[in-house]
């Protein structure tokens, strides 16, 4: 396929997403099935165009004065890809499978592209209804922070110290991937996305198959480190899902002590078993829920650390899932807040006196972070928040002091501040 034909395809996929209100992955899959002549590179390039258009949907529509799929793609090529008017016009020749030629109005708008007068939700490319929430956290940095959340994310890897002695050993084994050390996590490697927005197929690398590395955003690595899990402790990962943070905790604990990994949705636990085996983890017991039974009821009052990687809106992952921001609704936030209260209350019953709850979300909305913890502390008098200084000091991550946003109860990571996804972490200690 020619570059122009790929742009036509991206417009077609965006029209399908808009008409059927469906996730981008579904629309892209269906397009590929109905256009089998398109090779893997074509499909990757089209997906990159679609996701870039979704990242800049509001601002691209603003400069074009039109939110239709064609206008959004054209605006994205100007704002996100940095193409000038002549370059865009060359792609829109109307020949064969190319988009129709630019109109005079389109040419004028592309030439005068300017976001200086755009409202915050347009300049930052996010739904307008969450602006008050974001303003509470970000203040004057609202637009630049959200613009960072509209960029492409790198591919981050965590070096598994259960299999290799150091980050250098893993790094030296992967010179062909162009990986560099992450600036904050002592166990991270980073691969920047290529021109098509995708990284290499790390899962097929021998080092991945041997368990030397795991795919994990640097922010996720950092909040796991802030849990400060020690060898010999009893730990519950209450929302373990596919096991990313479970694996990180096991490495921190050097396979000593016990981790109980569970999730209220047994389907989310499915990948964890193979991942544990590949990583050489021996101190994790997976507790799969049966019907409505509590899989960890026998552990009440016995646990040193309960990790609550809480269900949330995922606002902090919008670099990787740009279509999710346009599907987010107020009702979804309220559902997540109720789920967060439920899982925090369950965690309270597991923690022994002197133990701790580590609360994590991949969100930057205060309602899911400080507000959730404020509600918990009102319901449970026996817990106190760990100070920022103690949180950073115990985990030997004091250098994050100036790289994170401090909130009432925890620390907020953001793409602009830490070059990671948007993660929140706080620790609550149960009184002895």
UniProtKB/TrEMBL annotation:
It comes from the Bacteria. It is an enzyme of class 2 (transferase). Its EC number is 2.1.1.-. S-adenosyl-L-methionine binds at residues 263, 309. PROSITE patterns: SAM_MT_RSMB_NOP. Keywords: Methyltransferase, RNA-binding, S-adenosyl-L-methionine, Transferase. GO terms for molecular function: methyltransferase activity. Residues 145-431 form the SAM-dependent MTase RsmB/NOP-type domain. The active site is at residue 362. One of its GO terms (biological process) is methylation. Belongs to the class I-like SAM-binding methyltransferase superfamily. RsmB/NOP family. This is RsmB/NOP family class I SAM-dependent RNA methyltransferase. It comes from Microvirga arabica. The lineage of its organism: Bacteria, Pseudomonadati, Pseudomonadota, Alphaproteobacteria, Hyphomicrobiales.
């Amino acid at each position: 396929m020619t570059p122009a034909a790929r742009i036509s395809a991206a417009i077609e996929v965006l029209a399908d997403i808009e008409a059927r209100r469906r996730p981008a992955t579904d629309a892209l899959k269906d397009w590929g099935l109905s256009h089998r002549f398109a090779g893997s590179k074509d499909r990757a390039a089209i997906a990159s165009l679609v996701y870039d258009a979704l990242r800049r949907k509001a601002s691209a529509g603003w400069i074009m004065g039109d939110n239709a799929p064609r206008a959004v793609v054209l605006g994205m090529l100007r704002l996100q890809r940095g193409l000038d008017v002549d370059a865009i016009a060359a792609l829109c020749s109307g020949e064969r499978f190319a988009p129709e030629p630019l109109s005079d109005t389109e040419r004028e708008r592309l030439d005068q592209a300017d976001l200086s007068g755009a409202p915050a939700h347009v300049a930052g490319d996010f739904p307008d209804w969450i602006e008050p929430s974001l303003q509470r956290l970000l203040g004057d940095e609202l637009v630049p922070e959200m613009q960072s959340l509209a960029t492409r994310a790198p591919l981050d890897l965590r070096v598994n110290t259960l299999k290799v002695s150091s980050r250098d050993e893993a790094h030296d084994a992967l010179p062909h991937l162009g990986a560099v050390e992450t600036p904050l996590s002592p166990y991270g490697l980073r691969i920047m996305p290529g021109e098509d927005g995708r990284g290499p197929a790390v899962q097929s690398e021998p080092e991945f198959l041997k368990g030397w590395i795991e795919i994990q955003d640097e922010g996720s690595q950092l909040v796991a480190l802030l849990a400060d899990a020690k060898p010999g402790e009893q730990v519950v990962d209450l929302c373990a899902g596919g096991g990313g943070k479970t694996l990180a905790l096991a490495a921190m604990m050097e396979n000593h002590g016990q981790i109980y990994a569970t999730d209220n949705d047994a389907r989310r636990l499915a990948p964890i078993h193979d991942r544990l085996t590949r990583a050489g983890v021996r101190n994790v017991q997976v507790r799969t829920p049966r019907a409505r039974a509590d899989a960890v009821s026998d552990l009440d009052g016995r646990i040193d650390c309960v990790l609550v990687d809480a269900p949330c809106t995922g606002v902090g992952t919008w670099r990787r899932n740009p279509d999710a921001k346009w599907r987010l609704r107020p009702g979804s936030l309220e559902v997540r807040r109720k789920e967060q209260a439920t899982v925090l209350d369950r965690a309270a019953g597991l923690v022994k006196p002197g133990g701790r709850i580590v609360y994590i979300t991949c969100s930057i909305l205060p309602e899911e972070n400080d507000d959730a913890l404020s509600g918990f502390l009102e319901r449970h008098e026996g817990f106190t928040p760990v100070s920022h200084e103690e949180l950073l000091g115990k985990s030997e991550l004091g250098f994050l002091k100036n790289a994170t946003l401090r909130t009432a109860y925890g620390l907020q990571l953001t793409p602009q501040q830490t070059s990671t996804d948007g993660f929140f972490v706080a620790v609550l200690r149960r009184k002895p």
